[in-house]
């Protein structure tokens, strides 16, 4: 059945715009098929068909169509300013109509292809711009990391210089104390020599008095004997054994490798962690008694990690860290969970925090430091930040950390 040509329509114009009203009963935006080019306008709404072979070209890109109230209203913008004598060309044969249709289809295909290519070019430009922005962001992050490293190096250098100055001042103070002690000993020796010389003079005086006056001999002998008694040296003590007890050392380190200052700092940190663990946190009163123990939460997180429930393990470690943020093993275990979940930046953050708490570098925390270095390095490698990993690793690891890491590998 051939389509029904629509002849009943209204149109009006100005010098730049043509308004076309096409009545179609029951038409909706999803039902009508509208095709428009510079010289051809077609509306297909089965069983109705409307075609217009425009007498002058229009701007098909900016022209608009509005569907509603059983009517399609077209707003067609003219390419050339002027008034039209008619909407459609008159006396158009079938061959000419077919040529106009084919030309319009080719124009529409060409415009669609150009539009697709333009969209592809715009997409490529957007991707290139996004890549450029990402590279700038990464470069800024890399520069920020380098600045942080440089600040840490400067801080470490200043701390080392301050420590050397402190050691120098301590040595000078000790030398001053030794000089004062030596001067006190010399004064005591001089006083002792003076006392001996006075005793000798007294003895000589007594002897002269004895020779002059024999009647006073007994009294002189008495005085002389008392003086001799005062100068008598006491008898040596009896032979015996003296028991000496030494304070036990916490770290079994040889004396030639002793790091007393570092060991004392480590013990102070452990004592501080135990003190914080025993403190009462008011906002956690609703927890059970065992849930207030960071060690119990740590064991719970380890069991959840063993069952590959990494999110639950992270929650357990988070609560333990909230109770006590001075235990390095909590950050170390949480870094392992983040590494399993591919949260690489959080892995680096927790490993770094664990390394900050695992100071000073002593034998007892060497194994934990090795684990932190391995997990942090793994995250760097998976992020493909190889240069940052090598620079950081060479700047932060001690000889003991390097030794344990190579043994593990």
TrEMBL record:
Residues 4-88 form the CS domain. This is Dynein axonemal assembly factor 4. GO terms for cellular component: dynein axonemal particle; extracellular region; neuron projection; nucleus. SUPFAM superfamilies: HSP20-like chaperones, TPR-like. It comes from Phascolarctos cinereus. Pfam families: CS. PANTHER family: DYNEIN ASSEMBLY FACTOR 4, AXONEMAL, DYNEIN AXONEMAL ASSEMBLY FACTOR 4. Gene3D superfamilies: 2.60.40.790, Tetratricopeptide repeat domain (1.25.40.10). It is found in: Cell projection, Neuron projection; Dynein axonemal particle; Nucleus. GO terms for biological process: determination of left/right symmetry; epithelial cilium movement involved in extracellular fluid movement; heart development; inner dynein arm assembly; nervous system development; outer dynein arm assembly. Keywords: Cell projection, Coiled coil, Cytoplasm, Neurogenesis, Nucleus, Repeat, TPR repeat. GO terms for molecular function: nuclear estrogen receptor binding. Residues 105-166 form a coiled coil. The lineage of its organism: Eukaryota, Metazoa, Chordata, Craniata, Vertebrata. It comes from the Eukaryota. InterPro entries: CS_dom, CS_DYX1C1, Dynein_assembly_factor_4, HSP20-like_chaperone, TPR-like_helical_dom_sf, TPR_rpt.
């Amino acid at each position: 059945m051939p389509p029904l040509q629509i002849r009943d329509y209204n149109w009006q114009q100005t010098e730049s715009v043509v308004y076309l009203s096409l009545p179609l009963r029951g038409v909706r935006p999803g039902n009508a098929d509208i095709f428009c080019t510079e010289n051809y306008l077609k509306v297909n709404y089965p069983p109705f068909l409307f075609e217009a072979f425009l007498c002058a070209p229009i701007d098909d890109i900016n022209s608009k169509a509005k569907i509603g109230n059983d009517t399609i209203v077209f707003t067609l913008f003219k390419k050339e300013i002027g008034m039209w004598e008619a909407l459609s060309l008159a006396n158009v044969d079938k061959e000419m109509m077919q040529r106009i249709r084919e030309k319009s289809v080719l124009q529409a295909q060409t415009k669609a292809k150009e539009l697709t290519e333009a969209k592809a070019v715009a997409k490529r430009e957007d991707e290139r711009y996004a890549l450029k922005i990402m590279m700038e962001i990464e470069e800024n992050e890399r520069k920020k990391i380098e600045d942080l490293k440089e600040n840490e190096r400067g801080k470490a250098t200043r701390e080392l210089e301050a420590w050397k100055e402190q050691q120098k001042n301590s040595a000078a103070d000790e030398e001053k104390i030794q000089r004062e002690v030596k001067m006190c000993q010399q004064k005591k020796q001089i006083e002792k020599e003076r006392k001996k010389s006075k005793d000798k003079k007294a003895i000589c005086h007594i002897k002269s008095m004895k020779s002059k006056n024999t009647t006073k001999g007994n009294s002189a002998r008495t005085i002389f004997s008392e003086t001799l008694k005062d100068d008598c040296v006491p008898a040596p003590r009896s032979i015996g054994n003296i028991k000496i007890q030494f304070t036990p050392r916490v770290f079994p380190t040889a004396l030639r490798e002793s790091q007393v200052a570092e060991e004392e700092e480590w013990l102070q940190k452990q004592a501080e962690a135990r003190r914080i663990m025993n403190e009462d946190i008011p906002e956690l009163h609703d927890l059970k008694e065992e849930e207030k123990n960071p060690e119990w939460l740590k064991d719970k997180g380890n069991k959840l990690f063993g069952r590959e429930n990494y999110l639950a393990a992270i929650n357990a470690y988070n609560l333990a860290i909230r109770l006590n943020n001075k235990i390095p093993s909590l950050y170390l275990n949480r870094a392992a969970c983040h590494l399993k979940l591919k949260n690489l930046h959080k892995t680096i953050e927790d490993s770094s925090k664990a390394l900050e708490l695992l100071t000073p570098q002593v034998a007892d925390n060497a194994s934990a430091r090795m684990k932190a270095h391995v997990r942090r390095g793994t995250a760097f490698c998976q992020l493909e930040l190889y240069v940052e990993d090598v620079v950081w690793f060479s700047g932060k690891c001690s000889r003991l950390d390097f030794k344990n890491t190579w043994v593990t590998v």
